[in-house]
Amino acid sequence: MSARWLVFAVLAVTVLACEDPRKKAIEQVGQDEALLKEVNGKVNEVIRNSADCDAAKPLMLEADQKIEEVRPQLHASASAQTLDALKAQLDRIKQVCP
Fold it and tell me: Would residue 7 count as lying in a domain?
């Protein structure tokens, strides 16, 4: 009887110790989403102020810094592509407001 409990305990510990890879992937996507939301907010501030280059220039610097800060923290390749798209939007505005 005690051997059964021992086997059960070992199995229970093993199951609990194993992390579900899907759960980890979902958590990483959530982290990427939060980071991209911050970058998107910075880029949107630049877009909203793009008619006034004097107001937009300091915001561009902040957005660039945020992009470079976030880039190494992203996990998914789709997140990196989204970040690249945000960078491209920022670069277009930089051409208008050098």
Answer: no
